[in-house]
Design goal:
The chain is 39% helix and 18% strand. It contains 13 helices and twelve strands. It binds guanosine-5'-monophosphate (5GP) and manganese (II) ion.
C-alpha cells in the first residue's frame, strides 16, 4: 500500500484535535457494507474521543446493517429530512466523505453537500476522485474504505479510541467489499488489518452470519427466480446479464438490499468474466457491473451508463427503459468482443 501523505495526516490530526463543534460523516447513496461500516466505525472512534458526530446517509440502508453500533442514530436523507440535514451541516466544522469520490455520488444530497463551507475530508478507495475537498486521502489500492479509515485513524494517533464496536464496523466494511474475502485481498496488509481487528474482540463468524445469513425467504425465492428466469448467458462474449423488473420486485416483496450480491452469481459460471445486473427503479434503471481479470467495468460503466467505480466492480444508471437498457447492453457486447476474449479470468 502507498504511504500516506504526512502533511495531509498531520493537518487532519490538528483539525480533529482542535474540533470545537460537530463533524458530519456521509457515505454514498444506496450505502453498502463498506459505506456503512467505514462511516459508523469512524463515527464510533471520534465519539470515543469525545467529539460530537452525526452520520447522514443519502438513502436508506439495508436492514441487515442495523446491528452496527450507531446505526440507530443515522439520519436518512430524504426531501422531508433536508432541513434537518442542512441544520446538521450548518453546525458542523468538518465533513467526512467516505467511500465515494464525487459529490454526485450522494444522489439527492449533492446540493446540500456542495453548500458546506467547513473543512471537507475525503477517505476513499475509488479511483479518479474529483477535487472538492481540503484533505484528500484517496487510496484505490485498499480493499475497502473501512480498511483505509482504520489505518488513517491509527496514523493520527487515535488507535486508543478503537473498541470492539468500532472494530466490528471496520470488519463489516472489509468483509462485504471483498465479497467475504474473495476479491481485492491480494495484499497481505488486508489480512493483517483483519487480524488486528480480531484483537478488539470482533467475532468474524458472528458478523458473517449477521450480514450474509440474515435474508428473508422472499429474497432467496427472488434469487432463485432471477437465476432461472431473468438471466441471459452469452458464452462467446464471456458475459451474462440479469435483470429485475418492477413487476418481479413486487412479486417478491422487494426491499433495499435484497439484490445485494446477485450480480456476482453469473461470475461463477465457467468462462464468464463479465456480469451485469439491471434493476428497474421508479424513474431510471440502476446498473451493476462485475468482472474478473483485466476487463475494466468502471470504464465501461462511465462510457455507456453514466457511472463508475472500481475496475472489477462498478455501477451506473440510465434513463432508458429496462428493455432499451438491456438492448443497448447486448448491442455493446460486439464492440467489446475482442477485449472480452483477451481478458484472462
Ligand atoms: P454496486 O454495483 O454495488 O452498486 O456498485 C459497485 C461499485 O461501483 C461501488 O464501489 C460503488 O461505489 C460504485 N458505483 C455504483 N454506482 C455508481 C455510479 O453511479 N457512479 C459511480 N461513479 N460509481 C458507482
Ligand atoms: Mn467501498
Amino acid at each position: 500500500m502507498k504511504p500516506f501523505d504526512s502533511e495531509v495526516i498531520s493537518g487532519l490530526k490538528k483539525h480533529i484535535d482542535d474540533l470545537k463543534s460537530q463533524v458530519v460523516i456521509i457515505p454514498h447513496v444506496n450505502p453498502d457494507g463498506d459505506a456503512m461500516g467505514s462511516s459508523l466505525g469512524l463515527a464510533r472512534v471520534l465519539k470515543n474521543a469525545g467529539k460530537k458526530v452525526k452520520v447522514i446517509v443519502p438513502s436508506p440502508f439495508p436492514d441487515f446493517y442495523n446491528w452496527l453500533t450507531g446505526s440507530e442514530d443515522v439520519l436518512v436523507f430524504s426531501s422531508s429530512n433536508k432541513k434537518q440535514a442542512e441544520f446538521e451541516l450548518q453546525h458542523a466544522e468538518m465533513l467526512f466523505c467516505l467511500d465515494f469520490n464525487d459529490p454526485a455520488r450522494t444522489g439527492d444530497m449533492k446540493e446540500t453537500v456542495e453548500k458546506f463551507r467547513g473543512t471537507i475530508v475525503l477517505i476513499d478507495h475509488h479511483p479518479y476522485p474529483t477535487d472538492f475537498t481540503d484533505f484528500m486521502i484517496s487510496h484505490p489500492e485498499y480493499s475497502s474504505t473501512a480498511e483505509l479509515a482504520f489505518h488513517v485513524i491509527k496514523s493520527i494517533g487515535y488507535e486508543k479510541y478503537i473498541d470492539q464496536s468500532g472494530g466490528e464496523c471496520f470488519f463489516c466494511g472489509i468483509m462485504t467489499d471483498t465479497g467475504g474475502f474473495n476479491h481485492n485481498v491480494s495484499d497481505p496488509q488486508t489480512f493483517q488489518t483483519v487480524s488486528e481487528l480480531l484483537t478488539y474482540g470482533v467475532d468474524p463468524v458472528e458478523i458473517h452470519g449477521k450480514v450474509f445469513d440474515n435474508y428473508s425467504a422472499d429474497r432467496m425465492k427472488l434469487l432463485g427466480y432471477c437465476l432461472s428466469e431473468c438471466m441471459e448467458v452469452f458464452p462467446e462474449k464471456h458475459t451474462a446479464i440479469m435483470y429485475l423488473s418492477k413487476e418481479i420486485q413486487k412479486k417478491f416483496n422487494f426491499v433495499p438490499g435484497d439484490s445485494e450480491g446477485f450480480v456476482n452469481y453469473p461470475l461463477s459460471i465457467k468462462g464468464i468474466h463479465f456480469s451485469a445486473l439491471f434493476t428497474e427503479k421508479e424513474d431510471h434503471v440502476k446498473t451493476s457491473f462485475r468482472s474478473k481479470g483485466e476487463f475494466a467495468v468502471n470504464e465501461f460503466s462511465s462510457a455507456h451508463f453514466n457511472g463508475g467505480g472500481h475496475r472489477n466492480a462498478a455501477g451506473g444508471q440510465t434513463e432508458l427503459s429496462l428493455e432499451k437498457a438491456l438492448a443497448k447492453f447486448r448491442n455493446l457486447l460486439s464492440d467489446y468482443a475482442e477485449e472480452l476474449e483477451k481478458t484472462k479470468q
